[in-house]
Structure formats: C-alpha cells, structure tokens
C-alpha cells in the first residue's frame, strides 16, 4: 500500500502568525506533492483560535492532533538541536515554527511560494474586490506589545504626534483612544479611527487592504493586509521587511504574467 506523505502544520497565535505557518506548510506541500493538515494550539494567554478562513485545512485525525500538540519540533528548536521547527517522521513532516525569516524559504522554488500565496489570497478575499485608496493607514498593535497602561499611553501619544494629518488608524485597543490626551490629538490632526471591535482577524485584514500605504509597529496583521492588498508597508523589523519585499515581488510577477 502506498501512503501519501502528510504535512502536519501546527498553527498558533493570531491570523497573522497562522498565515506565515500556512504559507510555509503549503509551499512544502506543493514541493513534495503531499497532503496538508492543520492543527491549532490555542493554549496561550491570548487564546487565539484557528481563523475561520483557514479551517478548510483543519485536520480531523486524533492521532496527528496528539502528536502535533506535543510541540516536539518547537522543543527541539528551543534546545538548539534543529535550526527550524521541522520534524520528518517518514510518513509525515510536522512543522511548528513562526516561519517569518526569509532564509526559511531558501529551499523552495518561486512557483511553490507563488502557488501557496495565491491560495491564501483566494481564501482571504474570496469574491471581494479591492478598491484602492491613496491614503495612509496606521495599524497600531497594543496590549500584548506593552507591559502596562502607562507604557501604551506614552507610546500612542508619541506616535500620533508623528502621524500625518488626515491619516486613518486601526488598533486592537480602541478604548485607549478615549483618553483625553489622545482624543485631543486625534481631533487636532483630523485622524479617523476605524472601529474593528468584535471583528475577526480576517475581517480586520479586509478593512486594511484598500489602503495604498500601511504603517505599523511590526504587526503581522498589517504585513498580510499590505501583501494581499499590494500596498506599501512601513515597519521597523528588518527580517519582516525583507520577507515582505520578497513575497510582494513574487506576487507582482504573477500579476504581470496574468495580464
């Protein structure tokens, strides 16, 4: 009997992290002509679940789920036994890492990555038409990026002072913008706060993709919104920036080819 090799992807974190994990898994699946199954670990303080758009790949096997939840590839990487969270068991490869470094994709052909990204783009967009706006969106990730309220408050005040007038803002802590110091700045600079309260990660991405330029404090959500929407991305993280340029270039090559 011939068994098809399986790619077991352990996802964790919000949709931004999940999309990197899926991109790598799909690229490997395409390269090896293997089946892919996703198992999500929500055992974190933030309790993010597998995003609805990605449940298409969710596995149903209790056996593989049990192995996935042991998190062995991640443990081996933390112990410096392996360089990347990947464990080959012969009939299956378990992937458990962030996969946010350009070097992680060195062993893939461009077409493997292009295929995987296009599949992700189809899942996120479905029948939605992107209508670009020549405006700037500032995505400010707060809460888990900071240690306390005062740190958040000072960061936002400093950031708003640098933002261009008439910009748009999306944040995961809208209540902070009700603070008098921040509210006055928002009004004086004619900024618009786009409310995303109660929306899922993929719904927030869809709010962001229509902007020509997205600035962020290294949010992976902003990364994917800019990539899917083919927008300029302004971030500080060098590794994320390098990966974004690489993936955006591949995406633009596909668009040019299809015209």
Q: Explain this structure to me?
A:
By secondary structure, the protein is α/β, with parallel strands linked by helices. The protein has 2 domains: 6-125, no CATH class; 133-258, Nitrogenase molybdenum iron protein domain (Rossmann fold, 3-Layer(aba) Sandwich), CATH 3.40.50. It is built from 9 helices and 9 strands. The protein has helices at residues 15-32, 62-70, 72-78, 110-125, 149-162, 180-188, 201-208, 220-229, 238-258, and strands at 6-11, 35-40, 86-88, 92-95, 133-140, 168-171, 192-193, 211-216, 232-234. It has a 5-stranded parallel beta sheet, with helices on one face. Strand 5 (133-140), helix 5 (149-162) and strand 6 form a beta-alpha-beta unit. Helix 5 (149-162) packs parallel to helix 6 (180-188) and helix 7 crosses helix 8. The longest helix has 21 residues, at 238-258. The N and C termini lie far apart (44 Å).
Helix content: 40-55%
Structural class: alpha/beta
Low-confidence stretches: 255-259
Identify the overall geometry: globular
Q: How many distinct domains?
A: 2
Write the layout of secondary structure elements.
Layout: E1 6-11, H1 15-32, E2 35-40, H2 62-70, H3 72-78, E3 86-88, E4 92-95, H4 110-125, E5 133-140, H5 149-162, E6 168-171, H6 180-188, E7 192-193, H7 201-208, E8 211-216, H8 220-229, E9 232-234, H9 238-258
Parallel strand pairs: 1-2, 1-4, 5-6, 5-8, 6-7, 8-9
Antiparallel strand pairs: 3-4
């Amino acid at each position: 009997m011939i068994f098809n090799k399986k790619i077991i992807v352990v996802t964790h974190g919000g949709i931004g992290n999940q999309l990197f994990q899926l991109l790598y898994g799909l690229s490997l699946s395409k390269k090896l002509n293997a089946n892919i199954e996703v198992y999500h670990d929500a055992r974190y303080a933030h309790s993010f679940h597998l995003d609805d758009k990605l449940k298409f790949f969710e596995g149903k096997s209790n056996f593989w789920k049990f192995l996935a939840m042991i998190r062995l590839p991640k443990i081996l990487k933390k112990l410096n036994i392996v360089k990347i969270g990947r464990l080959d068991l012969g009939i299956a490869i378990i992937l458990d890492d962030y996969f946010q470094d350009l070097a992680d994709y060195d062993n893939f052909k461009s077409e493997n990555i292009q295929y995987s990204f296009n599949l992700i783009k189809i899942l996120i967009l479905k029948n939605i038409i992107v209508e670009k706006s020549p405006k700037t969106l500032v995505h400010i990730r707060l809460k888990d990026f900071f240690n306390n309220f005062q740190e958040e408050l000072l960061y936002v005040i400093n950031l708003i002072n640098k933002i261009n007038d008439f910009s748009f803002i999306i944040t995961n802590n809208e209540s902070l913008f009700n603070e008098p110091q921040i509210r006055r700045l928002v009004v004086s600079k004619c900024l618009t706060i786009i409310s995303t309260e109660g929306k899922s990660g993929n719904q927030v991405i869809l709010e962001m993709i229509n902007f020509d330029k997205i600035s962020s404090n290294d949010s992976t959500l902003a990364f994917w919104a800019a990539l899917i929407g083919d927008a300029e991305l302004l971030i500080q993280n060098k590794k994320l920036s390098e990966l974004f340029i690489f993936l955006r270039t591949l995406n633009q090559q596909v668009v040019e080819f299809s015209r």
